[in-house]
Specification:
three-stranded antiparallel β-sheet
Length: 471
């Protein structure tokens, strides 16, 4: 007898909480999770597979990476038909895997209006490129589970640095070709630091500090997270960053977006998952999936199969995974909606979302109504953006001083019942499954009064100390 949807999510979180996914160590339960993800993607999309058999390309990416080509659930499936050839894409992936930390290459994960939202880690530095095995040994707790038994290459520091340019031209050139093939123009960098230094080696680096300016043709958005910007607390900061990302992918151009942090398995899935759920709540993507199904898909694919280390994070009290889904209560109002109209209708079929939501649609009580978020975002003058000086897109620079896509002058936050019902349903399903497997931890109120104790644990784990400093 098939397990109920809630039991399916509970089983998924249980498996997730016990071990980190490794593409070369697959169990029957993991195979079921992989198969279920493909079935859920197939409900609304025609897709191809980027092959990562046994983790040959990346050890903590899915064995079968889904490349969404176009929507196939209605009569408009040809509107955004893919021009990408999967064989060419596979070749570019294989060539570019060395360019980024841990081999976590630029990978498309969401398709919205014909534009790809991609995820990755940050750029690999020369310390990792020349000594990848030693680097992974350091960062993986003593086990190199990604790149086999290759020996660490030790060279004279000056000799290594003299060869930097030629090596970086090759590997970063391949990375750039992949980005351009996917029509990605915007790169959202969640790193707090410009470079990550371990034992004196620059093991990773950000596109914004590439000395040869290889990424000058892209719009680079430096959005350090978590970090205190303009006295924002973590909830408000997350809201503002999400609004920024939604603004970018909902713009009228045809350019895609890359989101990454350092390793690409903590902050990156947070925003990828929030983007997927927010767009789904508007009926803009995964239109046929119910709350339990979209919750399963984003946990399984965006978090588990892309290598989030939930057991390790739980042991340290860094509960970014929990924060993501509990945070849904803060994005239910229309300032996070990509639907322009006051009355929200299904973008394809012209039906109200409430008629699509079926049995799980119910009235929202006043007690369940989420607290208001800010009605007008703070200026983003501190967000750093760069693009080519010869670019003809300067008029669309989303982070230019004195202007912000997040500001909604004279507009009050209003609630969209259908959107709120959907997100609250997802959140309730998650909380029930999470509490019965991992368990909810209670924490004392934050001394700062801005963030709960739980969120402070998460913030400390990824770089925030106190309330005024970035470490």
């Amino acid at each position: 007898m098939m397990a109920s949807r809630s039991e399916e999510i509970t089983d998924l979180i249980y498996v997730f909480s016990k071990s980190q996914y490794r593409a070369k160590e697959v169990t029957p339960s993991v195979e079921r999770i992989e198969k279920r993800c493909l079935e859920l993607f197939g409900r609304d999309y025609k897709y191809s597979i980027i092959h990562n058999t046994n983790g040959d390309v990346c050890g903590h990416y899915p064995r079968k990476i889904v490349f969404l080509e176009y929507e196939s659930s209605d009569n408009h499936k040809e509107s955004f038909e893919s021009t990408v050839q999967i064989s060419r894409l596979q070749d570019l992936v294989n060539r570019s895997k060395m360019a980024r930390c841990r081999g976590r290459f630029v990978c498309p994960v969401i398709l919205y209006n014909g534009k790809h939202v991609c995820r990755s880690s940050t750029l690999a530095g020369w310390g990792e490129l020349y000594g990848r095995t030693g680097y992974n040994y350091i960062f993986s707790g003593g086990s190199d589970d990604t790149f086999g038994d290759a020996e660490e290459v030790l060279e004279d520091d000056c000799a290594v640095r003299n060869n930097d340019s030629q090596l970086f031209d090759k590997v970063r050139g391949s990375d750039i070709k992949l980005l351009k093939y996917l029509s990605v123009r915007y790169i959202c960098d969640l790193m707090v630091e410009n470079k990550k230094v371990k034992f004196g080696l620059n093991v990773t680096s950000s596109e914004k500090v590439d000395k040869a300016q290889r990424y000058a043709d892209f719009t680079l958005l430096s959005v350090p997270y978590p970090a205190v910007i303009l006295s924002w607390d973590l909830v408000q900061q997350t809201q503002n960053y999400l609004k920024l990302l939604l603004h970018i992918i909902n713009s009228d151009d045809e350019n895609g977006l890359l989101v990454h942090c350092i390793s690409g398995w903590d902050r990156t899935p947070l925003f990828v998952s929030l983007l997927r759920l927010s767009l789904w709540a508007d009926g803009a993507i995964h239109a046929s999936l119910e709350p339990s199904e979209i919750l399963y898909l984003t946990i399984a694919y965006d978090w588990f199969l892309f290598g989030h280390m939930l057991p390790d994070r739980l042991s340290k009290g860094e509960e970014i995974f929990f924060f993501c889904f509990n945070f849904l209560k803060h994005i239910v109002c229309d300032t996070f909606s990509v639907i322009k109209k006051q009355s929200v209708y299904h973008r394809r079929k012209g039906m109200p979302l409430s008629s699509h939501s079926g049995h799980w649609n119910r009235p929202i009580t006043s007690e369940e109504r989420a607290p208001n978020v800010m009605t007008e975002a703070s200026p983003l003058g501190s967000f750093k953006s760069s693009s080519s000086s010869s670019s003809n897109h300067s008029d669309q620079n989303v982070t230019r001083t004195g202007s912000t896509p997040l500001a909604v002058p004279g507009r009050r936050c209003t609630f969209v019942p259908e959107r709120q019902v959907r997100l609250e349903a997802v959140r309730e399903l998650f909380l029930a499954a999470y509490s019965s497997t991992v368990g909810l931890k209670s924490s004392a109120p934050s001394p700062s009064g801005a963030i709960s104790g739980l969120l402070e644990q998460f913030a400390r784990g990824v770089g925030l100390r106190g309330t005024n400093a970035i470490i």
